[in-house]
Design brief:
Length: 285
């Protein structure tokens, strides 16, 4: 089987069946066909695919992706904690957690794999690309499921800071519960009628409009949706209609979990992002 290259594992492609070279060339262009001719495509058993290989429908082949041109994210990502099992990093704004779409090399996962020399590094959870803060990774494949389960069952507690307008008519603190749905292909998530699947504690901690947000679930765009539902959209959030696009300041400030029968709490340092940098980067969303 193909290993990790350039901090990325190979892509797995499910075939419709027939001559592999012709199918890859038709579906993905001549670049994929050239990979076959160069011996860079293998089947699920690790056998190299050649120009004459024919496979049945439902078969899988594996190949390395070509990296797209990306806009560099000009912010550092300091490691806050590292041991044999986990790495905890302070992800900056505008950096995706892991490869997806046109964000591949400029992601937290690929950066850390390269910098730390840990090819099996994997995120135990995700932060939105525009959100900064504490991000936990596991160092070995066999650990990933255990830590993902901690996040899924609510054993990890996270808090965020965000800036928004202050409205005295909105009674705080309060727990916001709603049903959040994000449909494939749409940037925004929305609240819909039905059984709540998202819950956030919202607290105003400064009269200048600084909020502490404590999510008790992990739905996509949950914090921005819940703040918007209160009539308090997060300042500079490009996912909010009529956004000024000046500065997105949602930041994961603290991540706490029980591990090896003891509690671990890791905080991200205070950060400042210039409005000019935010405007420049938000145009690439």
């Amino acid at each position: 089987m193909l290993g990790v290259r350039d901090a990325l594992g190979p892509a797995r492609v499910r075939l419709n069946g027939g001559p592999v070279l012709a199918e890859l060339d038709a579906r993905f262009g001549t670049a994929a066909g050239r990979k076959v001719l160069a011996g860079e495509v293998v089947d699920s058993r690790g056998a190299v695919i050649d120009r004459d290989t024919v496979l049945p429908p439902g078969s899988f082949v594996h190949l390395y992706r070509d990296l797209p041109d990306e806009v560099p994210v000009p912010f550092e990502m300091p490691v806050l904690y590292q041991d044999d099992d986990i790495v905890v990093a302070d992800k900056p704004h505008f950096l995706a957690t892991m490869p997806r779409g046109r964000h591949v090399a400029q992601t937290a996962l690929v950066r850390l794999r390269c910098e730390l020399g840990l090819p099996e590094l994997s995120p135990a959870h995700r932060l939105d690309r525009l959100t900064a803060g504490v991000l936990l990774f596991t160092t070995r494949r066999e650990l990933r499921g255990r830590y993902q389960t901690l996040f899924a069952c609510g054993a990890v507690h996270k808090t965020y800071l965000a800036r928004a307008a202050v409205n005295p008519a909105v009674v705080l603190p309060r727990v916001v519960r709603s049903r959040i749905v994000k449909r494939r292909g749409q940037l925004q998530a929305v609240c819909e009628p039905g059984e709540p699947n998202a819950e956030t504690l919202v607290e105003l901690i400064s009269p200048q409009g600084l909020y502490r947000l404590t999510p008790r679930t992990g739905r996509t765009h949950q914090l921005r949706v819940h703040m918007a539902s209160l009539g308090l959209p997060i300042t500079g959030d490009p996912c909010t209609p009529r956004c000024s696009r000046k500065l997105m300041v949602t930041s994961a400030r603290r991540c706490s979990c029980w591990r090896s029968a003891s509690s671990s709490t890791i905080r991200s340092p205070a950060r400042a992002v210039s409005s000019s940098a935010a405007e420049r980067e938000s145009g690439h969303e």
